[in-house]
Structure of Thioredoxin-like protein:
Amino acid sequence: MDMPVNVPVDDPNADTEWNDILRKHGVIPEKPPSPTPMIQEALEQARQLAHENRLEGKDLDELAALEDEEDEDFLEEYRKKRLAELSTINTASVYNQVYHVQKPDYARDVTEASNKAFVFVLLTSSQGTNTESRVLIEIWRDLARRFGDIKFCQIRADLCIEGYPDKNTPTVLVYKDGDIRRQLVTLRELQGPRTKAADLEKVLLEVGAVTHGDHRIQKRNERSEDAEASYKTIKQGKSSRTQDDDDSDWD
């Protein structure tokens, strides 16, 4: 009767001649393939994809500035692609302003209109003292101007929904194809009173109202400057009202 023999194995994963002999005779299992080649292949694919998409999101002026750096045919292909995108956007840009809707017209101006385009509705504070509402009103004007293929509407919350709590304003409702696709109650999901247009642009992307690479999405430095200017405007307006209220106490 053959007795089992304990074969000494220091490290079954080591690349040694002894381990090769043991694997050949089935004493130890085959060594699993090294993940390194797969990782390297994935990294190379990521680098290749990044190189191919290096012009994504650049506007026509930025593409023109790259004429001496990029292959002419490749650059021309992207230029045609960007012009086609611009043409599509310009054709669909029929709104370009904030629409102040009335409750009797809500179904027509919002629900039915969402069958043609995304409709973003802003329910604002009824008292005019809500800082977040004022911040979002400024952002609403900016977004409506830049994203003309999306309909931006605005209505005072208490005129839209009787008894709607002012503490829940501003409220954003996103409609598409007659349904509410997203809602934000106050700006706590974003950055509160320091919410920027960039934060709402992310919402546009999340719901599919715009696509990644859309040239209308602001560059980071432009966002910071616009947001800071908007916040200062809001603060200055609030200070002026406070001063007026203090002055009125002396009358």
